[in-house]
Design goal:
The protein is an alpha+beta fold and 819 residues long. The protein contains 22 helices and 25 strands. Strands 1, 3, 4, 7, 8, 9, 10, 11, 12, 13 and 14 form an 11-stranded mixed beta sheet that branches. Strands 17-18-23-20-22-21 form a 6-stranded mixed beta barrel. Helix 1 packs across helix 9. The longest helix is centred in the middle third of the chain and has 36 residues.
Amino acid sequence: MGERGLVLRRSTARTPNMRAMDLSSLWTDARRAVHSLMRHPTLFVVSILTIALGTAATTAMLSVRNALVARPLPVAEPGTLHLIDELRSGATSQPLGVDAVPWPRYLAYRDLLDGPFEGVAAEAYRLPGGFSFSTPEGAVPVTGYLVSGDYFDVLGLVPAAGRFFGSDGEPSVVLGHRFWRTRFAGDPEAVGASVRVDGRSYAVVGVAPPDFQGTTHGLPADIWVPFEAYEDGPWVTMIGRLAPGTPPETALTAVRTAATNIPPLQPQTTVRGAEMPRLTGLPPGAEGPVGGFLALLVGTGLLVLVMAAANIAGMLLARGIARRRETAVRLALGAGRARIVWGSMAEVLVLFAVGGGLGIILGVRSAEVLQATRVPLGFDLALDLAPDAATVVLGVLATAIVGSLFGLVPALAASRGELLPHLKSGTTGTPRDARGWRLFVRAQVALSVLLLVTSGLFVRTLREASAVDLGFDPRGVSLAQIDLSAHDYSQEQARIFFEELGERVRAVPGVSDATIASTVLLGATYGRSSNDMRAADQTDDAARVNSAFNLVGPGYFDALGIELVAGRAFSPADGPDAPAVAIVNETLAQRLWPGRSPIGRRMTGGGTFEVVGVVRDGRYASIGERASPYVFRATAQSPVPRRTLHVRSALPHATVIQEVREIVRQLDPDIALQAVQPLEDVVGLTLFPQRFAAWLIGVFGLIGLVFAGTGLYGLLHFDVARRTREMGIRVALGARPARVFRDTVAGGVRLTVAAVLVGLLLAGLSSRLVSGLLIGVAPLDPVTFAGVGLLLILVAAAASAVPARRATRADPREALRAE
């Protein structure tokens, strides 16, 4: 019978070789898959590392998201806890994005909301500083909360040792569990001991539960102190627990009624109502941006896993094509296609099982590295980034699903096709064989473009942000917060303390200036205080301009390099008995007195002030903000006990702080420096999301670029091998090698251009999601998009060069002999 007449048929009878697959056969195929992979160690190792990288990226990002968003607060029935957030205009204070209220307003709320709420508690996190905790070695800074006496009861917590507070004014403290273990070695006798906090004695009455750090994710808490035992007249944040059976809508109506009925206490202040956001561990309004940013990071990790899977699928597809003859023989001898598919899938599952397991371990280690990373906040974050069981399960599921989906393609391809052509020795792959591989390579290229464009937008943002004129110079400025609020200093004593501190610090060799301020510019963790300002000769409410304000000392503008454009700066003569004065920025001057000089004019808002100077606009809350109104007032005329020392010096930051710490110890040994950090770190923190995203997504994008380059190289290498005879014939018919080279490279570039266009389209759609994090860069930035597209085309040309060079060496004699 001639070759073309040969027909191979499988018997339909059941034979030992065709027996339905049982567990023993599955196990046999799995072992065979391991042995087969071990015979190709390069493929085995590269595949495992590739999968591990994708799984690690996904697991680490899921851990971060879980710690900040998904994990509920460790309190009883967190779903019934709500913040009570007033809608205020006029005098406001916004620690952590929540409108705080004066203590008397909280007491009024607590009485009026007794029905719809089971309890209403108050808290104030000591941000950015904390408390001074006296030890035999001197005062040390600790973090924590001022809280109402019913705080722990409203949260439904049980102490790990001792008890909680009995009243708002009980002179006692509750220790954080971690602080109890580190400072007191977990000694039960610590309960009942007397400790000194900010120069006062308090009794330790209990220890907080081990997993409770406070009501805001990431903010550590060493101690809790009752409000009235510590200070009078604080501004507080309110937390309410709904009474059983009370719908949130009913409670919200009661809250809004109370908000408008309770007198606002401050002049020129209006309370328009209130909202009742859930107590989630994130500030109201932050869930969206933080959740979106973390979703971006998790999505990036998943993209790396998908690219890794596509890369593995491409390699296995090529390997399956090379083993077509072996597969055809097995099919001819009676092996079922299901058995062939399972045999190929077994290799995929082995790779993803080993790589995924390694990736989970690497993901856990990556989360530990992220947790150990110091963020310049002035304190250490209290985030538990260790992946829990749910995170590990999600990482495993993501790896298994992606691996199965991408592994099924080469497995099905291995069992597809006619037997006879593949039984002929020397047969190479067909154009159909390359279709699946081309799809994988295009997917890698498109996803690589998506990651590189996103990273490029953040890199461009960092570059643009570095060129933004802040309106002040943070270089060489060291910060240290000092709080006298609980040290029994009178206003006059506090003024004298800060004046003497400034004189002594300025006398330190190498220090050029030292001054104080109530707020640190661009200090995201320092909160925001504002008033509705109005020109004194205006009576129309529409003329009010809401403006943030800062209380600063003499020499502040020189110390920070803020340009004075009109009038004068503050001087020691602007004391408590002198007329109240203020300095405004250009934006506020233009809003209140358009086209006129504000010097000598008067304005109201939190008092009445004469404008003595105008300074150039700057950045106050974020680098990306638009020009906004701002007021500087003389700190001596608005005495508050908490101030941040600003020291400009050519000395190293650590040296400056050591000198300041020694001076403060000499003035009062019970006072510890809080929130110690360089001003440059504070400014840098405002760009932390952009910097972290640029670094992380950039690394993943480069990995994707490597995947895309190797995929292109492998595909073109296979394509050249398949078309060797064709190219040899072309050369024999007179085609020049240079033309063959150009055609081969052009084919790789054409393949890439289509994928690049898809990737740019995806990047254009996704760039809208990160537009809120971009500064000075459009979401569809043409420089970034064009640069990434050109880069991928150059990579495609480089990946095509080696196979193209091989194509030019095709031997015409061998090609003609084969034909």
